[in-house]
Amino acid sequence: MKNLFNILVLFIFCTASAQKVLPFDTLKLGTANDLFADDYGNIYVQQKKDFSFAKYDSLGHQKAKLMLPLPFKIQNVQNPLNIPSFSENAQELRFFDQNLNEIQTINFRQKFGFIKAAYVEDLQQAWLLDESTKNLIQYNFRDDKILNSFPFRVDVDQILDLLVYEKNVYLLYRNQLLIYNLNAEKKVDLILENVRKLRRENGIVMVISLNQIQKISENKLETIFKEDNSQIVDKNSAAYFVIKDNKLYLYPIQKKID
C-alpha cells in the first residue's frame, strides 16, 4: 500500500511539473522557427521570417534582440557568453555575447572554396565542409591556421547540420543521419523524421526533431524525450522546453537516484 502511495505521489508530481507554462507572449512563439535554452534559464527564439534572434528571461521579458541581414544558423547557446553561428549565404562565422552583440566575424571567402556547413568545436577550432574542394577541414580560427584537411567526397547538397566528435562525422539531412569516420567511410545510416539539428552535451550526441529528442547510443537512436503535436522542442541541463499551441511548456528533467 505504501509503495502504491509513493508511486501515486510521484505521478502527481511529474504531471504537475510537466504542466508548468512559462509566461510568454503567444505572438513570440507562434511563428518561431527555432528555440534554444541556456543553463541560466534564458530562452532564445529565432524567427526566419525576419532573420531575428531574441533572448528572453524565464518571465518572458526580452533581454536582447539581434536582426541579421542574411539567414544565419545558430549552433547552440550552451556558452551564452560566446554564441556561434554560420551563414552559408555570407560564408561567415559570427560570434555573439550575452547581449547578442557581435564579438567576432570570420570570413571564409578568401581562404576557402565554398563552405557548406560548419561546426564550432570550441573557442578556437571549427570543422568546415568545403563543397567545392570536397574536403573536411579542421580550422583554428583564432590563429587563422588549417590544422587538418581530409578528402570527404560525400553528398552535402541537402545537409541540415554537421557535428564532429571523437573522429566521427555526423551529417544530418531532412530524413536521415549519416555517421562517417574521417576517411569518409560510412559507419551508420539512420532514418529520421522532422529533424532540426544536432547537439552534443559532454559525451552524448543528440538529434533534436520537431517533437522529440534522441540520443545516439551504440549507433542506435534512443528517445529521451517526446511530446506529440509540438511545434518545437529543446532542452538545457535541467529541463525540456516545448512550444505547443503557441505556449511554452517546461518539463523538469528527472534526475536519476542511485
Tell me the layout of helices and strands.
Elements (H helix, E strand, L loop, with lengths): L1 H17 L1 E3 L3 H5 L3 E4 L5 E5 L4 E5 L5 E6 L5 E2 L8 E5 L4 E5 L5 E6 L7 E6 L4 E6 L4 E6 L4 E7 L9 E5 L2 E6 L2 E6 L4 E6 L3 E7 L2 E6 L2 E6 L2 E7 L5 E4 L3 E6 L2 E6 L6
Antiparallel strand pairs: 1-24, 2-3, 3-4, 4-5, 6-7, 7-8, 8-9, 10-11, 11-12, 12-13, 14-15, 15-16, 16-17, 18-19, 19-20, 20-21, 22-23, 23-24
- The total of beta strands comes to 24
Shape: globular
The share of residues in helices is under 10%
Which structural category fits the helices and strands?
Answer: mainly beta
Q: What do the pLDDT scores average to?
A: 90
User: The biggest beta sheet, please?
Assistant: 4 strands, antiparallel
Number of helices: 2
- Distance from first to last alpha carbon: 23 Å
The succession of helices and strands, N to C, reads HEHEEEEEEEEEEEEEEEEEEEEEEE
Walk across the major sheet and give the strand order. Answer: 1-24-23-22
Low-confidence stretches: 1-17
Strand content: over 45%
Radius of gyration from the alpha-carbon trace, in angstroms: 19 Å
Short description:
The protein has 2 helices and 24 strands.
Please describe what this structure looks like.
With 258 residues, the protein is mainly beta. It has helices spanning 2-18, 26-30; strands at residues 20-22, 34-37, 43-47, 52-56, 62-67, 73-74, 83-87, 92-96, 102-107, 115-120, 125-130, 135-140, 145-151, 161-165, 168-173, 176-181, 186-191, 195-201, 204-209, 212-217, 220-226, 232-235, 239-244, 247-252. A hairpin with an 8-residue loop joins strand 6 and strand 7. The two termini are 23 Å apart. Residues 1-17 have low confidence and may be disordered.
